[in-house]
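User: Hi! I'm working on a homework problem where we have to compare a predicted structure to a textbook description. Could you give me the structure for the chain below?
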Amino acid sequence: MLRLSSVGRFAVMAGVAAMVATACGGTNTPTSTDVGQGSLTGAGATFPGPFYDKAFLDYSIRYPQVKVNYQAVGSGAGIQQFIKKTVDFQSAEILLM
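Assistant: Happy to help. Predicted structure tokens:
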């Protein structure tokens, strides 16, 4: 197992703190004119479908000029639709072991 010295632990913690501060800080919140307009259609994995439904609904409330439609049809069907260019994006389940 890898053991870090106190200097190494400090460096890792400082790096993580810098990433968190960068991700959480700033006032560069996009306005409704910054995101453009149009619609996207996606298809793919069924497992993240409920999350995508909620996320895309929240996004469309914030940016009503953008519509996202996601079809939870399964990873394989989503891949086939993406290959056939009938959808704009595809989602597959990623299993982490």
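For your comparison, note the following. The longest strand covers residues 38-44. Residues 6-24 form the longest helix (19 residues). Good luck with the assignment!
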